[in-house]
Amino acid sequence: MSNDNKQAGKGGKNRRKSRELALKGVYRKFLNDLPVSQLERDLKDDEDYARADEEYFHQLLRGVTEHIPELDDRLTQFVDRGIPELSPIEHAILCIAAYELIYDPSIPYRVAINEGVELAKRFGGTDGHKYVNGVLDKLAAEARPAEFARSSR
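Request: output the structure for the sequence above.
Response:
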């Protein structure tokens, strides 16, 4: 198991919970255009907040919301419809994983893709995880060509 998902003991903090919280925040941002500070305050009341890696949650939520236009530009070439036609939940999942792929090279690309797929399985529509996987795989090849090429051998 990678350190990315390991829990630090009983009730430990983990990044998967951070991604789930960020997903809830980005989704709400898409629906209601709330300021990030409001999203962060609201999500502190979420039952998963205490189990999440708080620092990573804030980094992810702020980073994704700050870069939505750039993330959408990068994703546009790999989706089969316009960004506004994506379901808000799949759009949010794609943005979170794309942010990790593009802006956080400390996260291995396979982890970023897998975490996006897992979010889609849990929160997305039926078979949405397959769509998310296909889009993220193409983005990973473009965003991290050297890492992608090394693992394809």
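Confidence is low (pLDDT under 50) at residues 5-12.
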